[in-house]
Amino acid sequence: MLDAGFQPVGRDFPVFLDPETHEEVALARTERKTAPGYRGFVVHAAPAVTLEEDLQRRDLTINAIAQDADGRLIDPWGGRADLAARCLRHVSPAFAEDPVRILRLARFAARLPDFTVAPQTLDLMRAMVAAGEVDALVPERVWQELSRGLMETRPSRLLEVLRACGALARLLPEVDRLWGVPQRAEHHPEVDTGVHLGLVLDMAARLQAPLAVRYAALVHDLGKGTTPAGLLPRHHGHEARSVALARALGERLKVPNDCRALAEVVAREHGHIHRSGSLGPAALLRLLERCDALRRPERFEEVLWACECDARGRTGHAEAVYAPRPRLRRVLALAGAVDGAAVAAAAAARGLRGPAIGEALHRARAEAIAAGLGEDTGQDAGGDAGQPGEPAGDRPA
């Protein structure tokens, strides 16, 4: 292959790229487990390795079907039958040698939501978790598979499968502990926080949200998993706890910075955004400033996107109109239309300096918001968005 100009992909696997078409070509191979985790393999590729032996090392039967040059299917492990039965089934006990396959199967379940996991395969996955195989996964590989799963058709199934085999508790304990945690039924008819999370993620998929928004949806309520039992079903202060947990999770999995930053803003502010219809001009402007919306309007749009997923990701609310999104877009446009340079120059002409100029600009923006919304700047309706009396995240609009 090398002499023919094919380019190797990686060091350990006999996979090459065609020098002209860049099509991927993989030689038949077998593997021998030598150490825990997904890197502990010795790969053997030689002319004596048969296609059937190669297919036996694949993860799922539906991925272990080959086709010859004449179009005939080679299916020694029953992949076509499992396709017809909508079943995700492991090919052989070799599945247990690579913990990444647990994540891959969960991702396939999210992509193919009408497929079920074979009971024997689920049992094998549980045994792998009990043996500590998933503990050997490096953060980068966990994030790679998690991010792909979040972008599938029904990301809630990714969590369902990982939870069913026990892997979620080992890989994402902050997420796993949300199941069984109650919320107030008048605001969350689904009650269970974990069920709510699944609905939010599926709403993000339905609204075709990008990865950063879906990750923010995943971690927005992590703090509810640490609410003391005596305070349930209310979740006072969960926003701050969610931010801390999301930050720690992002660092542990080495999540990209754009996803981390958006997630922290959403975790901290989603409750305030939900109830922003009750806020007056000054509080609305403070909300925009905390979200850095004036400087980063494109990210604020993603914040609103994630908040809409949260609000509509509740039983009976999937078709609801999320009023805060268009209203806050308008508020941002009103504040952004203020000529900051002109305001600063006028303030300086009046002898103002330093922070006083910033305060003048803040007042001008608040007045612009009030004028545009037809509200009285003397009344900061709804109180300070930074100091709510009740955790707003428990009361989505």
What does this structure look like?
- It is a single chain.
- With 397 residues, the chain is mainly alpha-helical.
- The chain has a domain at 1-143: Beta Polymerase, domain 2 (2-Layer Sandwich).
- It is 48% helix and 6% strand.
- It contains 17 helices and 9 strands.
- The protein has helices at 51-56, 79-84, 100-111, 119-130, 139-150, 156-165, 167-171, 173-176, 193-206, 211-219, 238-253, 257-274, 281-290, 297-312, 324-336, 340-349, 355-373; strands at 7-8, 15-17, 24-26, 30-33, 41-44, 66-67, 73-74, 87-88, 116-117.
- It has a 3-stranded antiparallel sheet, with no helix packed on it. Strands 4-5 form a two-stranded antiparallel sheet.
- α11 (238-253) runs antiparallel to α12 (257-274), α12 (257-274) packs across α14 and α14 (297-312) packs antiparallel against α15 (324-336).
- The longest helix has 19 residues, at 355-373.
- It is elongated, with a radius of gyration of 26 Å.
- The N and C termini lie far apart (61 Å).
- Residues 193-294 form the HD domain.
- Keywords: ATP-binding, Magnesium, Metal-binding, Nickel, Nucleotide-binding, Nucleotidyltransferase, RNA repair, RNA-binding, Transferase, tRNA processing.
- It comes from Piscinibacter sakaiensis (Ideonella sakaiensis).
- Its EC number is 2.7.7.72.
